[in-house]
Design brief:
Helix content is about 45%, strand content about 5%. By secondary structure, it is mainly alpha-helical. Strands 1-3-2 form a three-stranded mixed β-sheet, with helices on one face. Helix 2 crosses helix 5. It binds zinc ion.
């Protein structure tokens, strides 16, 4: 899955976005980094690809569920910027396991970790992500 530069699809302030099996970014340097072997960022996006395989192997199903979980948590953004994003079960799995470059090797039918996180309450998700250090402070950028 090569990363491509597309400033229309990947807005400023974001590192990359996975759309229908392709990674789009807004800078060539980021694309080069993503295309490098053993990249944590690439692993993050690959986890999303494998999550789509785990949602009936259908991108539309993945995006519908992703949007559902984001909307379900949208009111959380009033408490802290982008909290709905970080507490989305799909992002939780990607962020928590992005540093383990062998994480996806154990799954034949896509990445299923999001199913575990969706069963957690919002406060449980928040505590887990804070414990893992995966929710940056409001001044940090580099959203994925
Ligand atoms: Zn992500």
């Amino acid at each position: 899955m090569p990363a491509l530069v597309n400033t229309f699809l990947c807005r400023k302030g974001f590192s990359g976005i996975t759309l229908f099996g392709r990674i789009f970014t807004n800078e060539q340097g980021i694309a080069d980094h993503l295309n490098a072997r053993n990249s944590v960022m690439k692993n993050h996006e690959m986890i999303h690809l494998r999550q789509a395989q785990n949602t009936a192997n259908n991108w539309l199903c993945f995006y519908a569920l992703y949007g559902y979980y984001w909307l379900k948590g949208a009111c959380l953004n009033r408490k802290r910027k982008n909290l709905a994003y970080y507490l989305n079960p799909f992002e939780m799995e990607a962020y928590i396991h992005e540093g383990n470059l062998r994480y996806l090797e154990q799954f034949e039918k896509g990445a299923p970790g999001w199913r575990e996180y969706r069963r957690m309450s919002i406060p449980e998700r928040y505590r887990l992500m804070m414990k893992k250090g995966k929710i940056p402070g409001p001044s940090k950028s580099g959203w994925r």
